[in-house]
Amino acid sequence: MSKILILTGDAAETLEVFYPYHRLQEAGYEVHLGAPVKRKLQFVVHDFVDGFDTYTEKPGHTWDADVALADVDPADYVAIVIPGGRAPEYLRNNADAKRIVRHFFEHDLPVAATCHGPLLLAAAGVLDGRTSSAYPELAIDVETAGGVFEHGGGVVDGQLVTARAWPDNGTWMKAFLEVLDAAGAKPATAAA
């Protein structure tokens, strides 16, 4: 059965967790949420309000993590997804999160990241020479990590698919599903 891991935690953007979670389930994959600790997570909603220079943040939905990152064997998964929000700000300091990310790049396996998700990629040292989108204010982080920033909603560089934020969810997941298919990742329904 093909499984995909979403690396996330508290203060992840609700739409950037739930859209890929449900879209990948719909496509037939078994999807797990991995977090620093296996417990109920509190997500947030980021929105754009007239008169603000940046987005605002409100409490979002809660959801249980399926597995603690320390317990993840990345070989059990065909791909990973890294949502944005503030979770990547602290996940980038988590040794297990970086271990998991490095595994997928070392084995040239599909990775999807959006919004602030590329902060974890940068910390794992896997953006050097890669083209990546991200929340536009993170262009400097992508470039500091040796990557090339591209302002786009479904940016594909090999097995890496990135986007700016939740307004790109449709183009981001469409491109990621195409990368999964090209990589030979088979959903659970296709494997049965």
From TrEMBL:
Where is each DJ-1/PfpI domain found?
3-178
Query: InterPro entries given for it?
Result: C56_PfpI-like (IPR006286), Class_I_gatase-like (IPR029062), DJ-1/PfpI (IPR002818)
What PROSITE patterns does the record tag this protein with?
Answer: PEPTIDASE_C56_PFPI
**Pfam families linked to this entry:** DJ-1_PfpI
- Superkingdom field: Bacteria
Secretion signal: which residues?
none
What the entry lists under PANTHER family is as follows: DJ-1 PROTEIN, DJ-1_THIJ_PFPI FAMILY PROTEIN
Q: What protein family is recorded?
A: Belongs to the peptidase C56 family.
For this entry, the protein name equals: DJ-1/PfpI family protein
- Annotated source species: Agromyces protaetiae
